[in-house]
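Work Package 3 (structural annotation) set out to generate three-dimensional models for the target panel prioritized at the project kickoff. During this period the team completed the workflow that converts sequence records into discrete structure tokens, so that structures can be stored uniformly alongside our sequence database. As a representative example, we reproduce one entry of 160 residues exactly as it appears in the project archive.
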Amino acid sequence: MYRMRRWVVRHSRAFETIYRCFEPLLVRLDPVWRRLGHERIETPVKVVEKAVKGALFDCQMCGQCILSDTGMSCPMNCPKSLRNGPCGGVRANGHCEVKPDMMCVWVDAWEGSRRMKDGDRIHAVQLPVDHRLKGTSAWLRQVRQKNGSASSTAKSETTR
């Protein structure tokens, strides 16, 4: 997994392009998702999302994906789960202080973001992780947000 996620970061521009094509397709399918019921399709979509993102990005299924903001490097792979940049313990060689044989996730994120067309999005401050969303589909959440149906979904998510 580690080698694959480092390879993805080195090719972050290509993955950014793929996602730019994929996201509008998901959004256009929203009438289908609504007809079937977002709750009903959550499980099968989540299985596919976990398989794809798990293999490519070592995704932890936090439910709040920010890969396109972090150079295709998932910050949830940080042993400290930091969502807004590296801790003060990054080693001189760029490796993690907790896992010395692993490159710091944020060093990778900066490298990947420099390759991306919208790489300056790495400067956006990210909200803390809402742990209630762990294990849910970030893809479906993004579709609901793009189509304005996130407000009703947000109410149900806060009551979990």
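The CA atoms of residues 113 and 119 lie 4 Å apart.
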